[in-house]
Amino acid sequence: MKKFIAHNRSKNLILSLFFLQLVCPPALAEAVTSSPAAPVQADFRSQYSAITKRILMESIALERLSLEYRRKSVHRSQFNKFVFFGTQEAGAATGLAFEATAVQQFGRARRRVRDFEPDTLGNGLRAVEIGSIVAGSGSGYMLSANLAKYIQARKQGKDTASTNKAVTAHLKEVDKLLAERKQLVEANSGDPIYNRAVIEGKVLEGLRGCFVDEYSQFSANTTSSAATENLFFLLNASYNILGAVAAEVGYKSLTQPRLNGTSNILFTISGAMAAATPLLCAAELKLYRKHLLAAQQRKFGASQKQIEELPALRKQLEDLSAATQETPSTNSTQRLAIYSQAGDLFEKQLNSEVKTMQQLNKVALQNSIAGPAIGSLLMTQGILGTRGYYHYFPWRVRKQFDLNYKGAICGTVGTSMAVLGNASWLVASMVYEHHLKKHKRMPEQLIDQRLEHLKEVENYVSTL
User: Fold this and answer.
1) Contact between residue 212 and residue 172 where contact means Cβ atoms under 8 Å apart
2) Which residues contact 80 (CB under 8 A, 6 or more apart)?
3) pLDDT (0 to 100) of residue 333
4) Which of 371, 391, 212, 386 is nearest to 305 (CA)?
5) 38 CA to centre of own chain
6) In angstroms, rounded to a whole number, what is the distance separating the alpha carbons of residues 398 and 110?
7) Could you count the other beta carbons within 10 Å of the beta carbon of residue 430?
8) Separation CA 244–CA 250 (nearest Å)
9) What is the pLDDT of residue 262?
10) Cα separation of 118 and 182, whole Å?
11) Which of 181, 345, 371, 436 could pair with 367 in a Cys bridge, judged by C-beta atoms 3.0 to 4.6 Å apart?
């Protein structure tokens, strides 16, 4: 046992140490050999060991189920990432090409109307129309990819709904076994280890709460991130399609001036949606995650009070163990020290895992800072174009072109930021993932390590 504990001292799988906490009932051997009622205590020990092993095996199955769900959820396609980047960059680049053309044409026309070249501006509008369609199609592709991923996970029983049902069933079994253990301990209230067994039971309940808290946080984070991504892709596709329609109407307005106002209104709405999308996604992520976490913890019966009381309970158990002067082979103080270390590692890994997943899932919020600024600049361009048409056409055309020129400058700044922002996001995400892989901190790597360690624990428990 000492070798097993030493081998796992550096591991950070909380339930494996939960298992270690259970494996050696405190000083039962000493109690059996020293008590006058040895046959009764021997029977108590036999029942205690049997129910402990059942709790161990059920807990192993529960932890493996959770980890396999996580493993499926955290996988991300590099191909999809590059497809999304390429389509968004195409949309931003064609938008920048149009803005450069518009600055040139409107700059000439505001000084001398006859220098305006409708065909040149029309080519720019066609380019931005195609680019908007490509960008919108990229978001449509990502929605389809996420739907296909969900269908596959559901068929395999690894989607959130299926996993929640399985976790509920396993937790009911664990609760049943813990209740049987409590009844067994209460039936032997005269045993010398009674007080320690009662405290240990409370520790086990707290450890159950730790698992529920861990699973609930990951499940809530995964589900809310997926919902936020899908909302972003839906809105992104919508305002890109609207931008394509605006470009088409703008192209027709070169020969049908009455459509100029409509085109600029559509551009204004598209820009407003682009500005609002990152803000809506950020708010949705925060509120939905909070709602899901509370719902999950209610569903699985998580008690923050039990988790918060664990340090004090461990201290009580440590004091009781020390008072019995146990032999090294059954020293619960040593087990408690290892568990205390694991508790700190658990908190660090859980926080790291959630933070890492949020960083990797930041597609929907990649422009959370620049996005509103970019959309606002494009919206401003639409507003200036709309004002120019309704206030100055057809009597003061040069004034109209002047407002269009100023709007095109705003659009140039906005689309330039979009081109640079997309490229920066791709490079930053690749560097971040490379850093994580190098230090074996990618979520897949962490989960694989925990699954491997869980297998070692299962092999050990099977020999009990």
Assistant:
1) no
2) 141, 142, 145
3) 40
4) 212
5) 54
6) 5
7) 13
8) 10
9) 96
10) 85
11) 371
Instruction: Say how far apart CA 317 and CA 424 lie, in whole Å.
Output: 53
If one counts every other C-beta atom within 10 angstroms of the C-beta of residue 459, the result is 9
User: How many Cβ atoms sit within 10 Å of the Cβ of residue 456?
Assistant: 15
Which pLDDT score, from 0 to 100, does residue 339 have? Answer: 40
Regions of the chain short of the pLDDT cut 50: 1-37, 325-346, 364
Statement: the pTM of the whole predicted model exceeds 0.85: no
Q: What is the 3-state secondary structure (H, E, C) of the chain?
A: CHHHHHHCCCCCCHHHHHHHHHHCCCCHHHHHHHCCCHHHHHHHHHHHHHHHHHHHHHHHHHHHHHHHHHHHHHCCCHHHHHHHHHHHHHHHHHHHHHHHHHHHHHHHHCCCHHHCCHHHHHHHHHHHHHHHHHHHHHHHHHHHHHHHHHHHHHHCCCCHHHHHHHHHHHHHHHHHHHHHHHHHHHCCCCCCCHHHHHHHHHHHHHHHHHHHHHHHHHHHHHHHHHHHHHHHHHHHHHHHHHHHHHHHHHHHHCCCHHHHHHHHHHHHHHHHHHHHHHHHHHHHHHHHHHHHHHHHHHHHCCCHHHHHHHHHHHHHHHHHHHHCCCCHHHCHHHHHHHHHHHHHHHHHHHHHHHHHHHHHCHHHHCCCCHHHHHHHHHHHHHHHHHHHHHHHCCCCHHHHHHHHHHHHHHHHHHHHHHHHHHHHHHHHHHHHHHHHHHCCCCHHHHHHHHHHHHHHHHHHHHCC
Spatial separation of the C-alpha atoms in residues 272 and 281, rounded to whole Å? 14
Q: Tokens at residue 457, please?
A: 């624990």
Report yes or no: 315 and 408 within 8 Å, Cβ to Cβ: no
Q: Which two tokens stand for residue 319?
A: 């004091």
User: 365 is written with which tokens?
Assistant: 């919020």
Enter the tokens of residue 18: 């939960």
Tokens encoding 111: 């000084």
Q: What is the dihedral of CA 84, 86, 89, 91, to 10 degrees?
A: -80
Phi, psi of 156 (to 5 degrees): -85, -5
| Residue of 398, 453, 459, 463 lying closest to 15 (CA atoms) | 453
Cα 205 from Cα 211, distance rounded (Å): 10
